[in-house]
Design goal:
Elements (H helix, E strand, L loop, with lengths): L11 E5 L4 E5 L3 H7 L3 H11 L13 E4 L13 E7 L6 E7 L1 H8 L4 E5 L6 E6 L2 E6 L8 H12 L4 E4 L2 H4 L7 E3 L3 E3 L4 H7 L2 E7 L9 H16 L4 H7 L4 H7 L21 H7 E5 L9 E5 L5 E4 L1 H6 L9 H14 L3 H16 L12 H13 L3 H5 L3 H8 L7 E2 L2 E2 L9 H9 L12 H7 L6 H21 L4 H6 L4 H11 L5 H23 L12 H4 L14 H15 L9 H6 L6 H6 L3
Parallel strand pairs: 1-6, 7-12
Antiparallel strand pairs: 1-2, 3-4, 3-6, 4-5, 7-8, 9-12, 10-11, 13-14, 14-15, 16-17
Helix pairs in contact: 1-2, 2-22, 7-21, 12-14, 17-19, 19-22, 19-24
Length: 608
C-alpha cells in the first residue's frame, strides 16, 4: 500500500534485551487498516512472530506495548495503552489496558507499539526517548515496591516521563502479576508483570517530543470538543464524579450479584461499609488517567492511614468475596497489591479459594473469612513466593488442580473471574465464558442490560448482545485505544469514535467497518488460543461448576443457579452467530471472509 496513512506513525520499535539492540519496523499499511492498533496489533504480532508452544516465562516470549490512532489525542479519555503477551497464567492470549502517561509518551515518541524480546543479563530499565532506545541498570530498584521505585524513577527521568514498572510480584513470577504506573494504575491481569519479571525488566520509561500527524486536525478538534461537552452535560455526570464505579457495590447487592465468600452468594451483610456512600465519607481526593474527562480513581485513607485508589472490582474482590466488611481494610489489601504489583481481582479470587479450601480442610492454612491481618500476611507470602504463598502465586486453576478441589475454583481458561456472581445471570456467564483473555468483564459487561431485560432467559438475544458488546468494548476501544466509560456510564454515542477515527486517519470507516475489524481480532485471538492449546473443546468455554451445581442460599434470588443444558444452547448460539463451529473453532469460510486465510489450515485440523 502506497497511499499516505495519517494517525499512525507506521513504526514499531523492536528491542532485543539480550543483544541490547533496537530496530525500527515499518509495518505495512494493511496492518493498520485491518487491525487498527492496541489489541489488534498485539495479537497480529503474536500470531505472526511467536513460535507456537513458547513458554510464557522464557526469553522467547514477546511483550508488546501498543497504542492506537486515537491514543494521546484530545478527546473523551484517550490516555490508554494495551500490554499483551502469551499469558503465564492461562497459556493463551493475554492482555490488559492501562491508563498511564506512558501511553501518551509512546505516541509522542513516534511509535505505534514496542515489541520486547529476549532477557536482560541483569535487572534493567528500557528507556525510550523519541527515536532512541537503550538499557540502563536497575539493580538498585530490584526488590522495591512499585510506589517507592516509581518515585525514584521520577527523580531520575523527570515527572513528565511515562513510567511502567513491576513490583516484587512480577520479579518473583507470580502468575497474575501486573504492570503498574503512577502508584495505582495497573494493567495486564493475565500475568504481564510476570513476563516483565522473567525478562529482568524492572521498568520501561518513555519520553517523546513529537505530535501525531492527523488527516483533518480541525475537524478532529471540533468533534473532540463536542464529545467532551456531551460527557460533561450528561445526566449522570455529577453522580459519576461522586462515586464512580464504587456505586456498583449497592447495585450489585440489590441485584444479588455481589461476589460473597468465593462466589457462594450474591449478597453480603457488610456491604454498606464497603459501598460508594461509605467511600464518600473517607475519600481524600480523586485521580484520573491522562486526558480523562470523568475521573474514576477515588483515593481513601486505608487501615494503615495510607492512600489507596479504589474502584468496584478491587473492593468487591478484596471485600465481600473474602468476608472483609470495612472499606479501610479492603483498601489496605488493594494498596498492598498495587505496591507489590499483583492483580487485585485474581488476588481476591485466590484468597477466597484459599479460605474456602482451609475451611474444608484441604489447605493447611489457619484462616477464616474476614481475617484481614492474616490476609495481609498471605499477600506478602504470595509476592515473595514463600511458604504457602508459592502455591497461591500460581493462580486458582493450578492451585485447585494441585490439591484436587476444582468444584469451587472460580475461573475460565485459568483467569480468575471478576466481580459479578452469575448464579442468576446466564448472559454475564456467557460474557465470562467467551472473553478472549479468560473470565474478565471488560469485553462485555452485559449484566446491567441483562438485569433490566430478563435475567433468567437463555434466549439467542443474549448471545447477540454479548457479541455486540464485544465488538465495541473489546474491539473498538481496545484497538483505537481509549476508555469505554464515557459510553458505558454516561451514554456517549459510539458514532463519535468513528468520526474521530476518520478525522484522525483519513479513512471513511463506519462503525460496522470497525466491528468487522473487531470480529477479525476476536477470531485471530481464538486461533492463537487453539494453536497454543493444540486444539479446543466446548468445555474450555464453560463457566465454573459452582454456578451450575450450588444454588444461592440467601437473598431475594435464593435457590437460583444456572441450567447447564440451556447454557450450552446459549453458548452454541454464540458460536453460530460468530461463524464458529459447534466446538468453538472459527470455520474456514469465516476466516476467509475476515482475511485470515493463513489460519485456515489450523482451523481445518481441529474442526469437528
Amino acid at each position: 500500500m502506497t497511499e499516505k496513512l495519517f494517525g499512525w506513525s507506521k513504526r514499531i520499535l523492536v528491542f532485543d534485551l539480550e543483544r541490547k539492540e533496537a530496530k525500527e519496523w515499518r509495518y505495512p499499511g494493511e496492518m493498520a487498516r485491518d487491525f487498527i492498533g492496541g489489541r489488534g496489533f498485539a495479537v497480529k504480532i503474536l500470531w505472526d512472530q511467536l513460535e507456537p508452544g513458547t513458554d510464557p516465562l522464557s526469553p522467547s516470549n514477546l511483550l508488546i506495548l501498543a497504542v492506537g490512532p486515537l491514543t494521546g489525542l484530545m478527546g473523551p479519555c484517550m490516555g490508554k495503552m494495551v500490554i499483551a503477551s502469551k499469558s503465564p497464567l492461562t497459556g493463551g492470549y493475554g492482555d490488559g489496558n492501562i491508563g498511564t502517561k506512558a501511553a501518551v509518551a509512546l505516541r509522542m515518541a513516534g511509535w505505534d507499539a514496542i515489541v520486547i524480546k529476549g532477557k536482560a543479563e541483569k535487572p534493567s530499565i528500557l528507556v525510550v526517548e523519541d527515536d532512541k532506545a537503550r538499557l540502563e541498570p536497575a539493580e538498585d530498584l530490584w526488590g522495591l515496591d512499585t510506589f517507592t521505585a516509581y518515585d525514584k524513577l521520577e527523580e531520575r527521568f523527570g515527572k513528565n516521563a511515562g513510567i511502567l514498572l513491576i513490583g516484587p510480584g512480577g520479579e518473583n513470577l507470580v502468575r497474575y502479576a501486573t504492570v503498574v504506573s503512577q502508584k495505582g494504575r495497573s494493567g495486564g491481569r493475565p500475568g504481564m508483570g510476570a513476563v516483565m519479571g522473567s525478562k529482568k525488566l524492572k521498568a520501561i520509561v518513555i519520553k517523546g517530543t513529537k505530535k501525531p500527524e492527523l488527516s483533518d486536525p480541525d475537524t478532529y478538534m471540533k468533534i473532540a470538543r463536542e464529545a467532551i461537552e456531551s460527557v460533561r452535560k450528561s445526566d449522570g455526570y455529577s453522580a459519576w464524579l461522586r462515586q464512580g464505579t464504587m456505586a456498583t457495590v449497592a447495585w450489585a447487592q440489590k441485584n444479588s450479584v455481589l461476589p460473597t465468600f468465593n462466589y457462594r452468594e450474591g449478597v453480603f451483610d457488610g456491604w454498606e461499609t464497603i459501598s460508594g456512600d461509605y467511600m464518600e465519607k473517607i475519600r481524600v481526593r480523586t485521580r484520573s488517567c491522562p486526558l480523562c474527562v470523568m475521573p474514576c480513581g477515588h483515593v481513601v485513607r486505608d487501615e494503615e492511614g495510607k492512600e489507596s485508589e479504589v474502584d468496584y472490582e478491587n473492593i468487591a474482590m478484596l471485600g465481600s468475596n473474602i468476608g472483609v466488611s470495612r472499606l479501610e481494610e479492603a483498601a489496605m489489601l488493594n494498596r498492598m497489591a498495587d505496591e507489590l504489583g499483583i492483580d487485585t481481582i485474581s488476588l481476591g479470587n485466590v484468597l477466597g479459594y484459599a479460605t474456602e479450601a482451609a475451611e474444608r480442610k484441604k489447605l493447611d492454612i489457619d484462616i477464616s473469612w474476614g481475617e484481614t491481618k492474616k490476609y495481609v500476611e498471605l499477600v506478602k507470602s504470595i509476592a515473595r513466593r514463600e511458604g504457602i504463598g508459592d502455591l497461591l502465586a500460581e493462580g486458582v486453576k493450578r492451585i485447585s488442580e494441585r490439591i484436587g478441589e476444582t468444584s469451587y475454583a472460580m475461573h475460565v481458561k485459568g483467569l480468575e473471574i471478576s466481580a459479578y456472581d452469575c448464579h442468576a445471570a446466564p448472559g454475564m456467564a456467557l460474557a465470562y465464558a467467551t472473553s478472549p483473555i479468560g473470565a474478565h468483564h471488560k469485553d462485555a459487561w452485559v449484566i446491567s442490560w441483562e438485569v433490566a431485560h430478563g435475567r433468567f432467559s437463555y434466549g439467542r438475544e443474549k448471545a447477540e448482545k454479548v457479541i455486540e458488546m464485544q465488538r465495541w468494548r473489546g474491539g473498538l476501544f481496545e484497538s483505537i485505544v481509549a476508555c469505554r466509560l464515557p459510553v458505558i456510564e454516561l451514554g456517549l454515542s459510539l458514532e463519535y469514535y468513528a468520526k474521530l477515527f476518520n478525522a484522525a486517519t483519513g479513512l471513511s470507516y463506519t462503525l460496522n467497518d470497525i466491528y468487522t475489524v473487531a470480529d477479525r481480532i476476536y477470531a485471530l485471538i481464538r486461533m492463537f488460543w487453539i494453536r497454543e492449546m493444540n486444539g479446543w473443546s466446548i468445555e474450555m468455554d464453560m463457566p465454573p461448576e459452582r454456578w451450575f451445581k450450588e444454588p444461592l442460599t440467601r437473598g431475594p434470588l435464593k435457590g437460583a443457579k444456572l441450567d447447564k443444558d440451556k447454557f450450552l444452547q446459549l453458548l452454541r448460539a454464540y458460536y453460530e452467530i460468530r461463524g464458529w463451529s459447534s466446538n468453538g473453532v472459527p470455520k474456514p469460510e469465516t476466516l476467509e471472509r475476515l482475511g485470515l486465510s493463513d489460519a485456515i489450515p489450523l482451523a481445518k485440523k481441529f474442526a469437528e
